[in-house]
Design brief:
With 633 residues, this protein is mainly β. It has 4 domains: 126 residues, Rossmann fold, CATH 3.40.50; 116 residues, Sandwich (Hypothetical Protein Tm1070, Chain: A), CATH 2.60.290; 100 residues, Hypothetical Protein Tm1070, Chain: A (Sandwich); 254 residues, no CATH class. The protein is built from 8 helices and 42 strands. Strands 10, 11, 12, 13, 14, 15, 16 and 17 form an 8-stranded antiparallel beta sheet that branches. It has a 5-stranded parallel beta sheet with strand order 7-4-3-8-9, with helices on both faces. Strands 21-20-23-18-26 form a 5-stranded antiparallel beta sheet, with no helix packed on it. Helix 3 links the parallel strand 3 and strand 4. The longest helix is centred in the N-terminal third of the chain and has 17 residues. 51% of the residues are buried.
Length: 633
């Protein structure tokens, strides 16, 4: 496993990791290492504890001898594979080169110049800084806004294309001019295009289409990953997006995924085993400039603790398709699979191939830091039902809705759950206690087995997964599920996965209800809804989940926004508490208004009275559709 710290729930993302892992930093560190090799034996001074991450991501540090620290408490500790020595021993080290493992290191360098061995050359990680023109805050290199980055699965071959859509949400946090620096890697990890895209001033839309890139740069077909870096960002240091995968020549395949998590994790979960008529392909994408060694990546059935390793190396920034049945033959739906990734990849995508249709979805971070919280079974009445995982129940005349609870923390051994189902007006129409499920359970519940024949037939509703401790069990608040939807006529399917939060109570517990900006409670909404694409209409299944009673109805505004960020039209919506609504932009605003908004237009969903949760996608008249949870800012 890579010895890197990427993200934790207390401190958030580790900027040092992003500074070292950036593709341009990788190139610069390669050049720096070449200089160090020519300078002779190397001493490493590690003032900020960066050395372990540096050596994990770039292990071929030439001629490394001693590692030196100034903190007497750290003398004798393991550091970068060496025993840390006192900085006062540096003059007698015989080093021909001294590397200070720090950025913005001018003042540090000035303090230790007199300690350099005779004739030694001094180097710092400032040699691996990004160009000044790419920095949002040029006065402080390790500012998180200098590294507003992310990866996207991207391809244009074999009849499938991808389309990334987002908006300049940084403008709402005071950003000035924003632009995107982008690098496209092919399957071998080779950069095949590097360019910049201007971002509209104001909250304008962003669209990057694989077919357009292929034509612009004269590229052959590709399947790889797109690295995105937002320059001039404010407020958020992650590039959020929705990614459509669609049939290039109006083929039947269509799916949508939410943005990747920008931070590598030890494990990921929520990968479904295939049905008998399916292939499930995991797309493994190396997020770093070093190979993933053979035997590092492994798949395991959740709860089995018998991981099977992939006996193949994956090159720097490379992409590999892994049929899960090659490592876990005979495993079928509804069994679940986890990926042990060794912190080499960001949130992976997987693909389900069934007949002529392909759909793509994502795995989620399996938390290593969580333990059961004994307070959750005894949460006070003011928090009502507490943690909720809301998801749409699409109109049953056309769709089946299936829910598969997914363990999403390494130490989750039980899932004590109940399902509450509501109609669009917020009336509880059914509930089902699912039991105290074990980690390796195989319960995939088709809601047809719970609902009466007429319930939610013409108009859908939504359901909440909630904790229910009547048969015991433990909880940690990290409740997840995989949600699968199947069109009864076409056979097309889509799936999404997400986790639970508390919703719409002014009382708080820890960091819940979460807020996109400021401290909890999160009682407002700002969601992004893309517009349609050709014959495919966009929609949102918008839910007003409620842990405890809140406003009887939402005061929701739908703002049709064009590609420059200008609001063209506005509509209002009043959703019942614990209710839901289907939002179709073409029905609300009309086709002419959507034409004026253009391909970069979108609908901003705002509500300052409650926190809504939504799923979005595209749908065509032939029964093709996509669905995943929306992103907010």
């Amino acid at each position: 496993m890579l010895d890197i710290r990427t993200f934790d729930q207390v401190q958030g993302g580790n900027v040092i990791y992003k500074a070292l892992a950036h593709p341009l930093a990788a190139e610069a560190i390669g050049a720096l290492y070449a200089q160090l090799a020519a300078a002779g034996p190397l001493a490493l001074y590690d003032p900020d504890g960066i050395a372990d991450a540096l050596l994990a991501l770039y292990p071929e540090l030439p001629g490394l001898g001693g590692v030196f620290v100034h903190d007497v408490a750290k003398i004798g500790a393991a550091r970068a594979g060496r025993t840390a020595r006192a900085l006062t021993e540096l003059p007698a080290s015989g080093a021909g080169a001294v590397l200070i493992a720090a950025f913005d290191a001018q003042r540090i360098a000035a303090r230790i110049t007199h300690l350099l061995p005779a004739g030694a050359r001094l180097f710092t990680l400032d040699a691996a800084r990004l160009p000044e023109a790419m920095l949002t805050n040029r006065g402080r290199y390790l500012d998180r806004l200098n590294f507003a980055t992310n990866f996207a699965f991207f391809r244009d071959e074999d009849g499938l294309s991808t389309r990334l859509v987002s908006a300049n949400y940084w403008a709402g946090y005071g950003a000035g001019a924003v632009r995107l620096w982008l690098r496209l890697f092919d399957a071998a990890g080779t950069p095949i295009a590097t360019w910049e895209e201007p971002v509209p001033a104001g909250a304008g839309g962003i669209v990057i289409d694989s077919g357009e890139l292929r034509a612009r740069f004269g590229l052959p077909g590709f399947t790889g990953q797109l690295f995105l870096h937002a320059i001039g960002a404010a407020g958020h240091d992650v590039v959020k997006y929705a990614l459509d995968t669609y049939g290039s020549a109006n083929g039947p395949s269509l799916s949508c995924t939410h943005d990747a998590n920008a931070w590598p994790s030890d494990r990921y979960a929520g990968l479904p085993a295939p049905r008998a008529d399916e292939r499930v392909v995991l797309w493994v994408q190396n997020s770093h400039a070093i190979p993933i060694p053979a035997g590092t990546l492994a798949l395991d059935r959740i709860g089995a603790e018998q991981p099977v390793a992939l006996d193949a190396e994956i090159g720097p920034f490379a992409t590999r398709a892994l049929d899960v049945s090659d490592l876990l033959p005979g495993l079928h739906w509804p069994a679940q699979i986890e990926l042990r990734s060794g912190r080499h990849v960001v949130r992976p995508r997987y693909e389900v191939r069934r007949a002529e249709r392909v759909r793509i979805a994502h795995m989620n971070v399996e938390r290593a830091d969580l333990v059961a919280d004994p307070a959750i079974p005894r949460l006070p009445a003011q928090l009502g039902r507490g943690y909720l995982l809301p998801f749409p129940v699409l109109a049953r005349r056309h769709f089946r809705t299936i829910v598969l609870p997914t363990p999403m923390a390494e130490r989750q051994t039980s899932l004590p759950l109940r399902l509450d189902i509501f109609d669009a007006e917020g009336t509880l129409i059914a509930e089902r206690f699912l039991g105290n499920l074990p980690r390796d359970h195989d319960l995939a519940l088709d809601l047809d087995a719970v609902l009466a024949d007429a319930a939610l037939h013409e108009q859908g509703g939504h359901a909440d997964l909630v904790y229910d401790f009547r048969d015991g069990g433990e909880a940690d608040g990290w409740l997840h599920a995989l949600l699968r939807y199947e069109h009864r006529g076409s056979g097309h399917a889509a799936e999404s996965s997400f986790g639970a939060h508390m919703f719409n109570t002014v009382m708080t517990y820890r960091d819940e209800p979460q807020s996109y900006a400021g401290a909890p409670p999160g009682l407002s909404t700002r969601l992004f809804l893309k517009l349609g694409q050709g014959r495919r209409r966009s929609f949102s299944a918008l839910i007003y989940p409620s842990s405890a009673p809140w406003h009887p109805r939402s005061a929701t505004r739908l703002l049709l926004t064009d590609g420059t960020g200008a609001v063209l039209e506005e509509a209002s919506l009043a959703i019942a508490c614990s209710g839901s609504a289907m939002v179709w932009p073409h029905e609300i605003f009309g086709n002419a208004a959507l034409e004026r908004a253009g391909e970069r237009g979108y609908v901003l969903i705002r509500d300052q009275t409650c926190r809504l949760f939504g799923y979005h996608g595209l749908m065509d008249e032939a029964g093709g559709f996509s669905l995943d949870h929306m992103f907010g800012f």
